[in-house]
């Protein structure tokens, strides 16, 4: 049985020798997988931190947007009475302008009468607006 035992031992040694390169490759692959796993766990932790920061930023942004919306609503509420006041003043100004226009039209025949002369004022005493108004009135005649 000596030669059978020796043959079997040689066969086992040959098989172990054949598996040695595969074992070395497997060990390298496992080492790489462990390194990748550590990097992956680190990346997962960083991703979790980034997600937490993004959620916090979103919350702050939402709060800021709500605050800005409230401020705009307050300003709008404060501006509405002013808008109504301005609308009222514009309506009154239009009515007064129409009334002034009718008074100017009714006064034109009086100034056109030869017997009535307007009091003379020095041109320097009149403002630019008065001079422009007089010029416009003369152009309309």
User: In percent, how helical is the residue content?
Assistant: over 70%
Contiguous helical run count: 2
Distance between the termini: 146 Å
Which ranges are low-confidence, i.e. pLDDT below 50, for 5 or more consecutive residues? none
Largest sheet: none
Beta strand count: 0
Transmembrane segments: 6-24
Domain DUF6468: 34-108
InterPro entries: DUF6468
Keywords: Membrane, Transmembrane, Transmembrane helix
Helix/strand layout:
Blueprint lengths: L1 H111 L15 H13 L1
Structural commentary:
This protein is an all-alpha fold and 141 residues long. The chain has a domain at 2-79. 88% of the residues lie in helices and 0% in strands. It contains 2 helices and no strands. It is rod-shaped. The chain starts with a helix and ends with a helix. 0% of the residues are buried. The model has no long low-confidence stretch (mean pLDDT 85).
What labels would you give this structure?
single chain; 141 residues; mainly alpha; rod-shaped
Short account of what is shown:
Residues 109-131 are annotated as: Disordered. The chain crosses the membrane at residues 6-24. The protein has 141 residues and is mostly helical.
């Amino acid at each position: 049985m000596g030669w059978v035992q020796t043959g079997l031992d040689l066969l086992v040694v040959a098989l172990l020798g054949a598996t040695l390169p595969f074992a070395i490759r497997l060990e390298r692959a496992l080492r790489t997988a462990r390194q990748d796993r550590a990097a992956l766990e680190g990346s997962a932790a960083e991703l979790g931190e980034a997600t937490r920061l993004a959620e916090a930023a979103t919350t702050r942004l939402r709060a800021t947007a709500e605050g800005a919306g409230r401020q705009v609503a307050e300003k709008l509420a404060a501006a509405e009475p002013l808008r109504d006041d301005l609308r009222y003043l514009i309506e009154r100004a239009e009515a007064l302008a129409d009334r002034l226009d009718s008074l100017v039209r009714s006064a034109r025949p009086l100034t056109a009468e030869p017997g009535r002369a307007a009091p003379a004022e020095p041109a320097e005493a009149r403002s630019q607006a008065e001079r422009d108004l007089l010029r416009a009135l003369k152009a309309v005649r």
